[in-house]
Amino acid sequence: MPAPHPPPAPAPARTRTSVAIALGALVVVVALAAGCGTDAARPDATTVPVAGPEAGVTSHYGTDAGPSSQPTTKAALAATHAFAATVDQSTASFVAAVTQLQADVTAGDTTGARADELAAQGDYDAFRELETGNTINAESLDELASDVGPDQSFGGLHAVERDLWSVGPLASDVSGLAGQAPVAQYVLSRERLGPEAIGSVAVDELSWVVDVALPDSQEQYSHRGLVDVAATEQAAASLFAILLPLGRLVDPALTGTVQQQFATLAFEVAALGPPGSTPDTSVPAGVRLSLSEQLDATASTLARLVATFTPYGTAGSPS
Q1: Which residues pair with 48 in a beta bridge?
Q2: Contact present, 218 and 212 (Cβ < 8 Å)
Q3: Is residue 71 situated within a structural domain?
Q4: Which of 58, 90, 167, 219 fits a 20 to 30 Å CA distance from 189?
């Protein structure tokens, strides 16, 4: 692993995006969640219901891990609560960005609408991996032109992106997106994952950047694919932050390594430039390769750490 880099200079603030706000509030969410699980009346085997395809399954804390009064069990419960709060915040930001997008399109503000669409795309990236089990919802929000036949239409964020940077039925596509955004918000509000599942989502997010976002930009009309790279890396880092207290209890050395890798990763992503205004073509192949290697290394080490969380709740998967 390369030596840690110095902290990057603050990146220019992106207008109309709520990603930075959501990340700034994460510390508060985790701090509040860390205080969960202190009720004296809680039984030793604390349970948390799981939504999605495993509905009815319950994640157990305190069975394999020990009594619920143990610090590791409290940290596991806090992670589950913080994860749910973070998902609620991410989907609320997405709905707000889509609402603003619709308002700017109605007002004829193309510049503002483009910024809104990129912000909404970044917000969607924060929870895209949670949609893997809901193909219909995922397609309605993030389908690509290449996902359908030449004579077929597509909708969602990329249809609006096409309309704004090329040509298409803008008002109709925005209306469809605005109707579907609250559906995603409702479905994902039911997510309750244990620590191992939360960590697996973070690993999958990093892998998605390596396998999809870096080699083949998803923003085929705006050519602002760095929005996906930055937002997904930040989402993975946010999930790791949720798991950090538990990791420090279970394996402090490995947790410290992952933390250092995320710091290096954040520096490399920030060095690419402002996501909303940096064209894909401005990133050299060598830089992409270096970033891909760092993403892969971080995902691999994180996966090792996640494996140690098995006793603290394994049930649950993205719905």
Answers
A1: 59
A2: yes
A3: yes
A4: 219
pTM of the complete model: 0.79
Tokens standing for residue 75: 């940290």
4 within a domain of the structure (yes/no) = no
- Residue 150 inside a domain? The answer is yes
The CATH number linked to 171 is 1.20.1420.20
For 292, the enclosing helix (H) or strand (E) is helix 285-307
Cβ atoms of 316 and 50 within 8 Å: the answer is yes
Strand stretches in the chain, DSSP E:
46-49, 58-61
Which domain does 37 fall in, by range?
19-312
> What pLDDT digit, counting tens, does each position of 163-181 carry?
999 999 999 999 999 999 9
Rg (CA), the chain: 20
C-beta separation of 80 from 59 below 8 A:
yes
**Residue 9 included in any domain:** no
Number of structural domains (the chain) is 1
52 close to 61: Cβ distance less than 8 angstroms: no
* Distance, CA of 274 to chain centre: 18
Are 156 and 142 spatial neighbours (Cβ–Cβ below 8 Å)? yes
User: What three-state secondary structure class fits 127?
Assistant: coil
Please say whether the beta carbons of 85 and 27 come within 8 A: no
CA distance 145 to 174: 16
Look up tokens 């073509």; give the residue. 281
